Amino acid sequence: MAADSDNRDPDKSSVADVCLLLRAHAEARWLSNELVPVVREVEQRATISDQQLATALAYLEVLWLEACARARETESARVELDALGSGDRELSDKAQRYHAAVRRLREGVERRVARLLAVPDTGALPRTRDDSPLRRHAHRSLRGRPTRP
Hints:
The chain is mainly alpha-helical. The protein is 72% helix and 0% strand.
């Protein structure tokens, strides 16, 4: 009987590695270019009026939901890679290191957004029908665990 690694398709594994690299890169760029600037603006409350703050917080919540969707896509790419194994160890290592870096970025941004939106820790979030979309979806996916429909 062939070893488990002999059954892996190196082409599929390489595609999965590249997919994870691309997804992680896209998520990192989006977080850095779209979400973090809004977080910074809201954190500097002295520079914006109360009306602008309310608008910025609403926009931040929308961006947060988009960040959740992007995180789910990245995590799905990681799950796919884990399921396939790797044909190219060096490429796989790079993909996994980049993924880990993006998760650290994601977690740092998550703490800042949660503080700004006054969202309690995920363990304390009630799971009731009238929860905001932020509470239902955002934290689960930003913790690196894909949500299930």
